[in-house]
Inverse folding.
């Protein structure tokens, strides 16, 4: 059947359905069976709310779903709405001067998208391969998440000091800076990576310690944007935390 | 066009689409335009992750979406997956004896579903009407959330003491007990409602104070199930918290 005939049939079916309150959705991408789509969408919600707790790989039945989610329009839409929540909060604040007003950003899946890498490893269905991922990091070619790049610039315009706090190691500072510049990020206040003394700490501990240090240095941490709960939980917390979507991996 | 012809067209379209990797979804319910569906689904995620912060009514454009979500199979599926996360955590524990192992449940939209009430007020698109809601509470006819009722029974079987902690007031104790029994709940350890001294406290403060009291009484709070972030946040927290879905209202 050619595509014109298909389109005609879809149109005819859609028109006929208006009165019977049935709607048709045409989704591009992998052919995910309905029951998998329903389950995987609920699984994704349980991941995004941290209900699922620790997990190491995405469920095998959800590979097609995650492909569809990441490469269709849902990931972009979800990212846009988180960014809108963040900027709306930022604009509601009455800020003191002096550069003490801070906003923290995580890097991977927050400022930068590693989707080109994760496409090659089944969208998180394979066990994390540190060597292969480090090679990808060294390429320094991860694109920006468009919604985050806009939020980053808008926050700078409002006068926030932007602190980038990543689980990447100091050994990756050069490639990380290069990649951030490649993706369009400029003029961050700090880029904090794991030093030797941070290796082995959980992300929650490492990032909470760093937030405590920033506060001790006089920063007021208004916002914190990250795709992992371990970016956001632990004392001290930011005044508001913003959980970006990431159905591909979980970091403790 | 009659329904047989519609079905034929859908089938023909679906078959024709297999090779071009387009999938058709037929969703029952209100005819939500695609761009609203996409936006409202992202709005819902921002609510469930607490990114949205406080909100008083659902967006006007999302009434049809929330109807579809609550009355289609998604709400049930999301509720089932949260319950599965909870019971899987509970089964992983090595519990001490003596009835000190506690699990906290919120009541509204956690054990009981007020969907029959919210259907009549636009699924949360109208400002909360306390008088009308209290009349509904007095009817004591809210059904159980099926996934929560099963979780409740399974946790009892494992030996947990179940503490029900609700923002409802002591004046509603009788109707709340009656409703819980009507819905199939039995043998809770405690049912805690707001006393006079709790009126005016935010839910986070009121519920955190109660959790602190339970701990002082010797309970170990392993799990906490609630549809509001104000059920779950604040010190002390349970070892694991489980956020049930609720796109209809937000309680501070």
């Amino acid at each position: 059947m050619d595509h014109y005939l298909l389109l005609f049939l879809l149109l005819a079916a859609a028109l006929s359905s208006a009165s019977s309150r049935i709607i048709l959705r045409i989704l591009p991408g992998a052919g995910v069976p309905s029951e998998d789509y329903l389950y995987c969408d609920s699984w994704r919600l349980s991941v995004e709310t941290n209900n699922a707790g620790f997990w190491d790989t995405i469920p095998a039945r959800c590979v097609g779903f995650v492909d569809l989610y990441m490469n269709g329009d849902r990931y972009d839409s979800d990212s846009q709405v988180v960014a809108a929540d963040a900027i709306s909060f930022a604009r509601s604040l009455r800020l003191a001067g002096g550069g003490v007003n801070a906003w923290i950003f995580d890097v991977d899946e927050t400022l930068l998208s590693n989707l080109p890498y994760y496409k090659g490893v089944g969208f998180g269905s394979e066990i994390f391969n540190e060597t292969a991922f480090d090679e990808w990091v060294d390429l320094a070619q991860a694109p920006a998440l468009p919604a985050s790049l806009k939020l980053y610039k808008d926050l700078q315009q409002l006068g926030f000091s932007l602190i980038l706090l990543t689980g990447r190691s100091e050994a990756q500072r050069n490639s990380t800076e290069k990649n951030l510049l490649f993706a369009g990020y400029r003029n961050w206040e700090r880029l904090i990576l794991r030093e030797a003394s941070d290796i082995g700490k959980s992300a929650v501990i490492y990032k909470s310690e760093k937030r405590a240090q920033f506060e001790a240095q006089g920063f007021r941490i208004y916002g914190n944007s990250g795709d992992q709960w371990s970016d956001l939980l632990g004392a001290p917390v930011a005044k508001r935390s913003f959980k970006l979507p990431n159905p591909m991996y979980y970091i403790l």
User: Anything to note?
Assistant: Chain B touches chain A through 55 residues (CB under 8 Å).
